[in-house]
Backbone:
């Protein structure tokens, strides 16, 4: 009995690991997520940081001494020019900014009058609008300096945000991880199970297996075990892709605040347990649908609505972790809650154990159903 | 003569879908594919099931192979019932039809080992048998080529070799020479005769008269799911050619049906 299961598993694993296209389908999502999130993080960061290289052409009329001092002190990257018709030059995007100060600006400011400054810019030009906002913030800074009554968080040497890196990471990961992981796990299972069951049915190769003395249950267990191993690898690849990519994605906003190292070995062990048992549920469920379908195409269209449902359940992880015990008896939802709980470092091991047991029982029932389907001539030889 | 396989009162009905009803031009939801079929096959003989398309030959063979279950009746293979002990029956038979395909991704070499393992063949015996069969069928040169890249004839030969990997005592072939070129067909028929020489029971289904005349010891003629004649080839032919005899039986059956309808 064990031997046959092992033989079937070995064949399935060879089938997937020997096929480059299949390998790509399994491991690409994790790698892509890492690359895409890292690139997105980089892009966001560079968007936030001023570019040192760019210089903006500005023409300034009646530049007051005070502002001149500020401009010299700042590293704004302005280069000063004089053109004949500055307004037209800005409109033609030949000049980035045209600033007109009133005469004796400094004297008016000292006399508590409110002089107006005019800044002409071109909102459709990237350099012009950046020059405009740089200059505006410079003037705003000067204005608030003049009227300084009190400071907020002025001590640069102090840390005012008292959330630890653990708290921030926990919050972020527990919000994003459940949905990402559930979706990636499901698509990992979807990449292999229909091919292995509906595909074999479609090509007529499963009948060749069914005329051997192998028991239908051995075939079901062997297939599900092999598909689970492949999906687990795919799931883990995606998991680490997300784990390493999230700090990169958020790096721009929360530098140093996101740190995946806050999780210990036991946290990872729990996560692995939840991922593994969830994959067993997914693989066996998708296998049943694949056995009912006559072709890979039909299987895919049967599974698509399920994918939407699973995504919705995954979204529920965004709204915190459930505390009542009974929710951990609902398959898939329990996994989402566990993942959310583990990443926020606020979980009860009992809940996770319930989840894993429930998932295993559900997978067991599905294996039984699959065995029945393999035994049914109407299902297996439907044209 | 030692009984190897006995079919008694086999009946199999299929439910037709709306689409199939249209194709078959019938309003009946049920189609009786096999209706009270009985026959025996003995050790060391080639038994032929002869009949037109749709007569119920393939359905009968599928019931022997335990792929489908008879609604009524039973088949015993070496004393084991296909209804009560399908697993045991599968261990004793080799079944080959064009419906059973080999996975394109693997090589004949790997698939031979894989199916041998599922049949529980001893690894040493397996290697010796594989070498001999691969040489006999000329697969040895293509043993490492993926099935997808093999020619149709080579695929068929690989399927045949793999279906007898466990050296079964009873071999069932559905349309054994269909779609094969003359050379491959000859290799296959020679192999069937060789199996018979070795004391195996071979059951073939076909609609080719010449094949039956050439290799079969006994023949059963199936028309409309019923066995209309079943005996030694010479007895069935009764001095006529098999083809003439078949049409006599066919016409008699049609007349009978016409009479029954009236």
Residues:
């Amino acid at each position: 009995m064990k031997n046959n299961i092992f033989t079937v598993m070995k064949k399935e694993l060879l089938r997937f690991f020997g096929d480059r296209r299949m390998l790509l389908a399994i491991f690409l999502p994790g790698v892509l997520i890492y690359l895409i999130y890292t690139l997105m993080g980089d892009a966001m960061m560079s968007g936030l940081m001023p570019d040192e290289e760019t210089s903006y052409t500005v023409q300034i009329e009646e530049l007051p001494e005070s502002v001149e001092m500020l401009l010299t002190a700042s590293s704004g990257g302005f280069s000063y020019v004089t053109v004949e018709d500055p307004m037209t030059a800005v409109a033609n995007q030949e000049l980035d900014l045209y600033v007109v100060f009133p005469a004796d600006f400094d004297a008016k400011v000292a006399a508590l009058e409110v002089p107006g400054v005019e800044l002409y810019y071109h909102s459709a030009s990237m350099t012009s609008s950046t020059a405009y906002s740089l200059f505006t913030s410079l003037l705003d800074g000067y204005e608030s300096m003049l009227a300084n009554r009190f400071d907020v968080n002025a001590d640069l040497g102090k840390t005012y945000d008292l959330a630890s890196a653990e708290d921030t990471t926990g919050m972020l990961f527990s919000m994003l991880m459940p949905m990402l992981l559930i979706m990636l796990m499901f698509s990992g299972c979807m990449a292999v199970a229909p091919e292995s069951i509906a595909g074999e049915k479609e090509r007529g190769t499963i009948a060749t297996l069914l005329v051997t003395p192998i028991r239908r249950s051995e075939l079901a267990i062997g297939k599900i075990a092999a598909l689970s191993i492949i999906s687990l690898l795919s799931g883990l690849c995606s998991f680490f892709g997300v784990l390493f990519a999230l700090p990169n994605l958020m790096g721009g906003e929360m530098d140093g605040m996101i740190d995946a190292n806050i999780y210990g070995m036991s946290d990872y062990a729990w996560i692995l347990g939840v991922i593994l048992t969830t994959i067993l549920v997914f693989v066996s469920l998708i296998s049943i649908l694949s056995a009912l379908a006559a072709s890979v195409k039909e299987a895919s269209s049967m599974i698509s609505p399920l994918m939407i449902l699973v995504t919705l359940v995954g979204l529920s992880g965004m709204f915190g972790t459930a505390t009542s015990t009974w929710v951990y008896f609902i398959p898939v939802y329990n996994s989402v809650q566990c993942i959310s709980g583990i990443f926020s470092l606020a979980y009860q091991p009992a809940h996770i154990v319930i989840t894993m047991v429930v998932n295993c029982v559900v997978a067991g029932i599905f294996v039984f159903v699959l065995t029945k389907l393999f035994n049914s001539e109407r299902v297996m030889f439907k044209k | 003569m030692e009984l190897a396989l006995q079919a008694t009162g086999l009946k199999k009905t299929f439910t037709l879908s709306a689409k199939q009803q249209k194709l078959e031009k019938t309003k009946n939801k049920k189609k009786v594919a096999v209706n009270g079929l009985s026959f025996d096959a003995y050790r060391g003989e080639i038994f032929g099931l002869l009949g037109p398309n749709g007569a119920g030959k393939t359905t009968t063979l599928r019931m022997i192979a335990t792929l489908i279950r008879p609604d009524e009746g039973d088949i015993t293979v070496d004393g084991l019932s296909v209804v009560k002990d399908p697993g045991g029956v599968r261990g004793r038979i080799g079944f080959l039809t064009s419906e059973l395909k080999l996975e394109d991704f693997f090589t004949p070499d790997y698939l031979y080992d894989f199916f041998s393992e599922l049949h529980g063949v001893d690894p040493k015996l397996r290697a010796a048998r594989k070498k001999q069969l691969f040489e006999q069928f000329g697969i040895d040169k293509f043993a490492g080529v993926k099935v997808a890249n093999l020619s149709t004839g080579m695929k068929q030969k690989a399927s045949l070799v793999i279906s007898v990997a466990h050296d079964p005592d009873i071999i069932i072939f559905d349309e054994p020479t269909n779609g094969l070129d003359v050379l491959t067909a000859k290799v296959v028929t020679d192999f069937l005769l060789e199996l018979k020489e070795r004391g195996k029971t071979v059951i073939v289904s076909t609609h080719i008269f010449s094949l039956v005349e050439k290799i079969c010891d006994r023949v059963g003629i199936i028309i409309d799911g019923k066995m209309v004649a079943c005996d030694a080839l010479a007895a069935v032919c009764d001095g006529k050619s098999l083809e003439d005899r078949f049409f006599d039986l066919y016409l008699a059956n049609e007349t009978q049906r016409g009479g029954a309808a009236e």
